[in-house]
Amino acid sequence: MSTYPGGWPPPQNQGSNRRLLVVLAPFVVLLVAAAAIGIGLLVRSAAAAEIPGTATAAGGSAPANVLANGAVRVGEPDAKVTVRVVMDLQCPACKAFEEANGKVLEDAVRDGDAAVEYSVITFLDRASTTEYSSRAGNAAFCVANSGVDEYQAWLSEMFTQQPEEGGDGLPDSALIDIAESAGYTDPAVAQCITDRKYDTYLRTKTDEVLNSGVNSTPSVTVNGEQITDAAALMSPNGLAASIAAAR
To answer: Which of the chain's ends, N or C, has fewer CB atoms near its CB within 10 Å?
Structure first.
């Protein structure tokens, strides 16, 4: 907390305190609402500061099993319902969404009710001392390149072990352990993680996603319709009704 001479806050009389509370109350409500559904408009400004322009120009090699827009699709190719989730693996709101609706999406894929397209982007490298956001994002493409059958299990464990913001983030060895525990035991996956093979590709696709109009994470659509209801995103099984309505 910032400190001013004489301490913070400076002395005020009761009348000025009441006026201050009246002014601040609406802003507190807005901040809480924004936190409930994700990072909001901060995504674009944060990403712009962290994505090198040269990465966008270079493009980078594309992994297998990934759509042209950079999303990893899990589920039947002809599924009637498609859920798209844009996320950063360091994003706390994305973790909350996964905790609330991860099993809903796994069940929807297993039962053939929906396919899910996971669009992993990176804009939170500043939230760790080791560029965890982009290292985790690179790992998302490393495992996808090996196959998507275990992708949802891998993603669930990544969020379970999501590090606190402001720390070191998980080391590459932990990312490799998570991949192996989910079934990605090919040594090429571990090498891909340590080499950050898809780092440039990740940053390029991040730029494309943000330029497409996405400005918050998690950003969720069902058959192209944006889900803006915080209860559907953050309440346990809240997304199930939206998937059912789209069938």
So the answer is: N
What is the rounded distance in angstroms from the CA atom of residue 215 to the CA atom of residue 184?
32
- Positions of the chain with pLDDT under 50: 1-42, 44-45, 48-58
Q: Quote the pTM value.
A: 0.80
Q: Give CA–CA dist 20/156, Å, rounded.
A: 43
The residue assigned the tokens 């969720």 is 220
- Write out pLDDT tens, residues 166-179: 999 999 999 999 99
3-state SS record for the chain: CCCCCCCCCCCCCHHHHHHHHHHHHHHHHHHHHHHHHCCCCHHHHHHHHHCCHHHHHHCCCCCCCCCCCCCEEECCCCCCCEEEEEECCCCHHHHHHHHHHHHHHHHHHHCCCCEEEEEECCCCHHHCCCCHHHHHHHHHHHHHHHCCCCHHHHHHHHHHCCCCCCCCCCCHHHHHHHHHHCCCCCHHHHHHHHHCCCHHHHHHHHHHHHHCCCCCCCEEEECCEECCCHHHHHCCCCCHHHHHHHC
